[in-house]
Amino acid sequence: MKSEPRLRRTGVSASTAKCLFAVCVFIFAAQPVFSWGREGHIIVNEGAIRNLPYGMVFFVKNINFINKHVMDPDLRKSEDPDEGVRHWIDMEYFGSFPYRDIFNFKNPPVEQDYEERSGKLPWAIVEVLGELTAAMENTEKKKILFLSADLGHYVGDGGNPLHTTENYDGQWSGNQGIHGRFESELIKRYSSVVKIDSFSVVYVKDPLNFVLEYLIESNSRVSRILKADNNACWEPGIYDDYYYDRMWNELEELTNTCFQKASFVFACLLYTARIDSGTFKWK
Question: What are the C-alpha distances in Å from 71 to residues 4, 80, 85, 224, 277?
Fold first, then answer.
């Protein structure tokens, strides 16, 4: 979800900018809430946990709890005004593809003078990973499960390419509404046929760089989603079964890749937290 507007510098006074910002916040509050549906996040969770090493069977035993709470970060958006920005990253803020300038930011960019907002997704993932590692060090089982659900949610959001671009809803390319059509309706219709292949987890030495590479790769799929939307829409504004069947035909491989990669990243981060904690040995 994009929970806050981004305003570019226009040379207006600070008071005028504040007024404009307030108006934009009010308008934007009416925009739809975007996130993988529960079905999508569960696909990521189960794909990740199914491929964890046997020594992490604790997560297998508690998959239902993690799935139950995987949408908690979305629920917090209504209570915490700073939560929404943690679910996305506008890569264009960092130049042009492949956005190498983003590697200069070990922390989220400082937002000043109503500059365009960049989003904080990668740093949110790393922050939760640190909290999860600490919870494992202290063997706080319930906290481990809640933080694992949060981590899976944020990583899952990053698997949707439209969470990595300013053109998140096709509003600049004539694809208005594509976010919901791709992320929610398409997945609701075809979640049962999404396939996550088995994989081996790896230890992540530099979590931030690992996550940034993941999000840059995710962003590389945006144009294919927009193209498929154009090809599938036989009549402007008509999004019927025919449209979604054509969308799936074009995007089945891409969608499976999105979920496959998200599951891999989530599993590797869980494994990394376990290794770094040093004491998480119970089952």
Answer: 20, 15, 16, 27, 26
The per-residue pLDDT for range 15-35, each reduced to its tens digit, is 444 444 443 443 333 334 556
Domains of the chain listed by start with CATH number: 33-277 (1.10.575.10)
Q: pLDDT tens across 132-175, in order?
A: 999 999 999 999 999 999 999 999 999 999 999 999 999 999 99
β-bridge partners, 89: 119
What confidence tier does 111 reach under pLDDT thresholds 50, 70, 90?
Answer: low
Alpha helices in the chain (DSSP H): 14-28, 38-50, 57-61, 63-68, 72-75, 121-137, 141-159, 178-180, 187-190, 207-219, 222-232, 241-277
The residue count for the chain:
283
Contacts of residue 205, Cβ cutoff 8 Å, sequence gap at least 6: none
d(CA 123, CA 125): 5
Q: What span, in angstroms and rounded, lies between the C-alpha atoms of 269 and 125?
A: 9
DSSP one-letter code for 33: P
> Percent of the chain beyond pLDDT 90?
78
Residue 110, pLDDT above cutoff 50:
yes
CA of residue 90 relative to chain centroid, distance: 12
55 has a pLDDT exceeding 50: yes
- Among candidates 192, 191, 182, 189, which has minimal Cα distance to 221? 182
Contacts of 239 (CB under 8 A, 6+ apart): 177, 181, 185, 233
